[in-house]
């Protein structure tokens, strides 16, 4: 059973991972606060450093009253980011502005690209060997931005940079469960590609569940654009925060378990990959077996239906464009 099925599958427990320091950059935001709460509950986390421009000392003080062993510290302002990142095993980055009604991924890019670049530069300086989990949207571009900064400073390790796409799998399991009146925790959908719109490819043919073509097309569209449902429902108040926090915490937990030596943990994640390189795509999300180094075995796509092959062909040019936007941003800035 893949670890992707449930966040509650078990916290990290090995000796290596029990003393972990995790830093959350953007900890004062809509994703950052519930994400930090979930990480405070994880016994593998010994030190939890919260960083944001404002507000983090208050968030840290609040969380520090929860009776788990993790020591929580709050850091705010550019002058304190080094203290937050130093000695981190994992840095989780939900920093940036959320998507609002009418905003495109390009709008998000225009604001969040610079934020992610600056965090990458701080990581180079204070925690170049940390495993970095990027939630900041648009992931298809922000992950390459982060990697390019690391490359230019000679510290890029493809096994240590992850785009967190877990929410796509969480949504896919939920939506399939609703359609089939089944327990979503027992449903595993291999979702590949990227983390926005048509770049999200749910491989429903690999679930072992029978669908009509109408169900496949409706589910595919809902999984690809599920984020829009939340943006619309929040009526201008933001995008997915609670579900993204749970998905981000699940991935962080899985990585902690793998870093601690537990084997067989597989999660979907957007990484530097050969899976679609023949089609010109260097970064791609697929199931990845996590290891003590971070990225372990990158699983192939597997068999695709004719419909899924069509989806793949539509995703490739969009992914290439998104990735090139990130690389170009660093080159120009």
Automatic annotation (TrEMBL):
BP-aspect Gene Ontology terms: malate metabolic process; tricarboxylic acid cycle
Keyword terms: NAD, Oxidoreductase, Tricarboxylic acid cycle
Catalytic activity: (S)-malate + NAD(+) = oxaloacetate + NADH + H(+)
Sequence positions that bind NAD(+): 26-32, 52, 112, 135-137, 244
Annotated family: Belongs to the LDH/MDH superfamily. MDH type 1 family.
Quaternary structure, from the entry: Homodimer.
Protein name: Malate dehydrogenase
């Amino acid at each position: 059973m893949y670890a992707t099925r449930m966040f509650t599958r078990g916290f990290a427990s090995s000796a290596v991972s029990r003393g972990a320091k995790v830093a959350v950059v953007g900890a004062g935001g809509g994703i950052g606060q519930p994400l930090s709460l979930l990480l405070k509950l994880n016994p593998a986390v010994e030190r939890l450093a919260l960083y944001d421009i404002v507000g983090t000392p208050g968030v840290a003080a609040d969380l520090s009253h929860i009776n788990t062993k993790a020591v929580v510290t709050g850091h705010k302002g550019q002058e304190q980011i080094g203290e937050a990142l130093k000695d981190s095993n994992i840095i989780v980055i939900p920093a940036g502005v959320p998507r609002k009604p009418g905003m495109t991924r390009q709008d998000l890019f225009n604001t969040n690209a610079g934020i992610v670049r600056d965090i990458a530069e701080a990581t180079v300086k204070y925690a170049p060997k940390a495993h970095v989990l990027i939630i900041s949207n648009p992931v298809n571009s922000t992950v390459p931005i982060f990697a390019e900064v690391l490359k230019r400073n000679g510290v890029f390790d493809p096994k240590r940079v992850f785009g967190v796409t877990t929410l796509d799998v969480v949504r896919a399991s939920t939506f399939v469960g609703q359609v089939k009146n089944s327990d979503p925790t027992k449903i595993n959908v291999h979702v590949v590609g990227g983390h926005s719109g048509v770049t999200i490819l749910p491989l429903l043919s690999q679930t072992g569940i029978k669908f009509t073509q109408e169900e496949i097309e409706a589910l595919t569209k809902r999984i690809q654009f599920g984020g829009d449902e939340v943006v619309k429902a929040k009526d201008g108040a933001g995008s997915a925060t609670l579900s993204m926090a749970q998905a981000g915490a699940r991935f962080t937990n899985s990585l902690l378990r793998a870093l601690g030596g537990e084997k067989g943990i597989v999660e979907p994640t957007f990484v530097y990959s050969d899976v679609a390189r023949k089609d010109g795509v260097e970064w791609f999300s697929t199931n990845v077996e996590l290891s003590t180094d971070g990225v372990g075995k990158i699983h192939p796509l597997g068999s695709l239906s004719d419909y899924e092959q069509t989806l793949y062909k539509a995703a490739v040019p969009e992914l290439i464009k998104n990735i090139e936007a990130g690389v170009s941003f660093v080159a120009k800035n």
